[in-house]
């Protein structure tokens, strides 16, 4: 399941604090597993997170209507009465996977912008996050426009949105290439 995989990979283990010195009860201190990782490892992690996002988008496609989201098509073909609980569950799982990936991407960006003093790499990661947000919002709008109530309303707008998704995906690929290239130069 996407959610457990995403949560497991972005989990932040807890490490007991120094309770003995202060006499205070033990407190757990959050530790980010990539804190001391090489820049190359951080960039590889970004690529892994992008693969997780791609898997989540495939789940969304399983929910979509023609060429946009098969899952949505499954939902619409299940009724009436529609299988809304299954649809809602899948959307929730995908949302959680995107949220977990986004949290970790933002943590990598903060690490690159702060302690690593790599503003160029951090800007690539920030741009990647912005593009993924655009892509997700556009795909969601396409799904909405594919519902029976809205089908055929505005084919030009549907086409424009599909082109926006394609151009956003191309921009994401370019940012990933720039990130990889600039990371090699930074090391």
Q: Which band does the percent of strand residues land in? A: under 5%
Oligomer: single chain
Overall mean confidence score, pLDDT: 77
- Rg, please? 20 Å
Instruction: Give the overall shape, derived from the CA principal axes.
Output: globular
The portion of residues assigned to helices is over 70%
Kindly report the spatial arrangement of strands forming the biggest sheet.
1-2
Report how far apart the termini are: 36 Å
Beta strand count: 2
Characterize the structure shown:
- Mean pLDDT is 77; it is low at 1-22 and 65-70.
- The chain is mainly alpha-helical and 187 residues long.
- 71% of the residues lie in helices and 3% in strands.
- Strands 1-2 form a two-stranded antiparallel ribbon.
Secondary-structure map:
Layout: H1 2-9, E1 14-16, H2 19-22, E2 28-30, H3 39-61, H4 70-77, H5 84-113, H6 119-145, H7 155-186
Antiparallel strand pairs: 1-2
Distinctive features:
187 residues, mainly alpha, two-stranded antiparallel sheet, disordered N terminus
Summarize the structure.
The protein contains seven helices and two strands, in the order αβαβααααα. The protein has 187 residues and is mostly helical.
């Amino acid at each position: 399941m996407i959610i457990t995989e995403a949560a497991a990979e972005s989990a932040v283990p807890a490490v007991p604090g120094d309770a003995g010195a202060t006499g205070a009860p033990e407190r757990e201190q959050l530790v980010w597993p990539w804190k001391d990782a090489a820049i190359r490892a951080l960039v590889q992690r970004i690529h892994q997170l992008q693969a997780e996002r791609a898997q989540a988008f495939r789940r969304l496609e399983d929910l979509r209507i023609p060429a946009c989201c098969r899952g949505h098509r499954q939902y619409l073909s299940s009724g009436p009465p529609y299988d809304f609980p299954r649809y809602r569950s899948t959307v929730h799982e995908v949302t959680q996977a995107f949220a977990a990936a986004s949290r970790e991407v933002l943590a990598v960006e903060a690490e690159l912008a702060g302690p690593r003093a790599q503003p160029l790499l951090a800007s690539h990661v920030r741009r990647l996050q912005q593009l993924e947000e655009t892509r997700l919002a556009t795909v969601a709008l396409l799904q909405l426009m594919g519902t029976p109530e809205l089908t055929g309303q505005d084919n030009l707008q549907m086409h424009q949105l599909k082109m926006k998704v394609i151009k956003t995906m191309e921009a994401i690929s370019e940012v990933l290439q720039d990130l990889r290239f600039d990371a090699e130069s930074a090391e």
